């Protein structure tokens, strides 16, 4: 089964053709990062306008790379939640029109489920059940994936997401947007023990809190400036990356032990962070657990991961009609139309 998938939840306009949830026939991404750098973050109105300008061309290129027409695919899938609502609606409305005109089933996909499914493309042998640590700019979750469309949230951030904390810490040391990538890049030149950082308390055994940690970094930078003391960006980057990775891994390992999971999956944009990947590899090796991580090319927003999850949503009967609406927020445990 070949599915044409569309992703437009933030600042990447993407389209892909995926076969049977595991094979990438084509994948095209148009990013807006350079434009949003001017503002230090994503501007929703600009993002929506750029999606409108790009979505036809991106989709046409994905179909061309796959050697198919819209009538030759078996279904059309789209990210329908969560995300910047204006951006999400561009993709949803385009996909609805395309599915209707080509007389194909329409499959709505949860964006965060898609991040988990990126691992199916990289690891054909991976099957549920497993434990997933999903970390991105807007989400930080520990999720028990019992089946392809059956999720239980064990833990989550009670305030800021890990990715947001990375971006704010990067801004403190003068690094450009997207901050998490820049912070990781300079961190390996620094000392991870140079700046002691607090571990914020979060209610809930498997929950995270990053707001206090973000504030601690901001205060550290401001205090150094007021006292005229030098702040070493590489040292602060290393200290921050190391500490956040440790927090994320410790909670994940605790949940894995509690629920008897020996398969761990990393997902989301922050899964590209080299400190987190290294800590997860070390931790799984110590425990004898299997670790699955997406390649760096699939950690960011892309349509290939949406097409991978769409295959399993289709098998479960989760399709939609022209009444489908985009949503800015939605739990990973929810189904569209329920």
Structure description:
This protein is an alpha/beta fold and 338 residues long. It is built from ten helices and ten strands. It has helices at residues 33-37, 44-66, 85-102, 111-122, 162-172, 179-187, 211-227, 233-259, 274-287, 303-315, and strands spanning 2-7, 12-19, 23-31, 75-81, 106-110, 130-135, 140-147, 150-156, 263-267, 290-292. A five-stranded mixed sheet has the order 3-2-1-4-5, sandwiched between helices. A five-stranded mixed sheet has the order 8-7-6-9-10, with helices on both faces. β7 (140-147) and β8 (150-156) form a beta hairpin. α4 packs across α10. The two termini are 26 Å apart.
Q: Helices, strands, pairings?
A:
Blueprint: E1 2-7, E2 12-19, E3 23-31, H1 33-37, H2 44-66, E4 75-81, H3 85-102, E5 106-110, H4 111-122, E6 130-135, E7 140-147, E8 150-156, H5 162-172, H6 179-187, H7 211-227, H8 233-259, E9 263-267, H9 274-287, E10 290-292, H10 303-315
Parallel strand pairs: 1-4, 4-5, 6-9, 9-10
Antiparallel strand pairs: 1-2, 2-3, 6-7, 7-8
Helix pairs in contact: 2-3, 4-10, 5-6, 5-7, 5-8, 6-8, 8-9
Helicity, as a percent range: 40-55%
Rg, nearest Å: 20 Å
Q: Trace the largest sheet across and list its strands.
A: 3-2-1-4-5
Number of strands: 10
Count of discrete alpha- or pi-helical segments spanning 4 or more residues = 10
Shape: globular
Order of helices and strands: EEEHHEHEHEEEHHHHEHEH
Mean pLDDT: 95
Task: Indicate the low-confidence ranges by residue numbers.
Answer: none
Sheet/helix structural class: alpha/beta
Q: What gap, in angstroms, lies between the N and C termini?
A: 26 Å
Report the β-strand fraction as a percent range: 15-25%
**Major beta-sheet overview:** 5 strands, mixed
């Amino acid at each position: 089964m070949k599915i044409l998938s569309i992703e437009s939840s933030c600042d990447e306009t993407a389209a892909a053709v995926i076969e049977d949830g595991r094979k990438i026939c084509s994948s095209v991404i148009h990013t807006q990062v350079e434009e949003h750098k001017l503002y230090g973050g994503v501007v929703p109105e600009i993002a929506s306008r750029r999606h409108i300008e790009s979505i036809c061309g991106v989709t046409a290129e994905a179909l061309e790379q796959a050697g198919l027409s819209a009538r030759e695919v078996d279904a059309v899938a789209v990210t329908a939640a969560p995300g910047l609502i204006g951006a999400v609606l561009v993709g949803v409305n385009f996909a609805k029109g395309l599915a209707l005109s080509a007389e194909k089933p329409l499959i709505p996909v949860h964006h965060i489920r898609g991040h988990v499914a990126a691992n199916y493309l990289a690891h054909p042998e991976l099957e549920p059940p497993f434990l997933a640590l999903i970390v991105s700019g807007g989400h930080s979750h520990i999720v028990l994936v019992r089946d392809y469309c059956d999720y239980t949230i064990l833990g989550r951030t009670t305030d800021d997401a890990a990715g947001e904390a990375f971006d704010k810490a990067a801004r403190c040391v003068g690094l450009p947007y997207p901050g998490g990538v820049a912070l990781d890049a300079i961190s390996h030149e620094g000392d991870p023990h140079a700046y002691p950082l607090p571990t914020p308390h979060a209610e809930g055994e498997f929950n995270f809190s990053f707001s206090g940690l973000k504030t601690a970094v901001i205060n550290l930078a401001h205090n150094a400036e007021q006292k005229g003391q030098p702040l070493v960006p590489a040292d602060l980057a290393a200290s921050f990356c190391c500490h956040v990775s440790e927090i994320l891994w410790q909670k994940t390992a605790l949940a894995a032990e509690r629920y008897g999971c020996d398969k761990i999956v990393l997902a989301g944009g922050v899964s590209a962070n080299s400190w987190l990947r290294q800590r997860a590899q070390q931790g799984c090796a110590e425990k004898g657990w299997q670790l699955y991580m997406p390649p760096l090319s699939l950690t960011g927003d892309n349509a290939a991961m949406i097409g991978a999850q769409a295959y399993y949503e289709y098998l479960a009967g989760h399709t939609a009609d022209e009444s489908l609406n985009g949503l800015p927020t939605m739990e990973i445990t929810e189904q569209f139309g329920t």
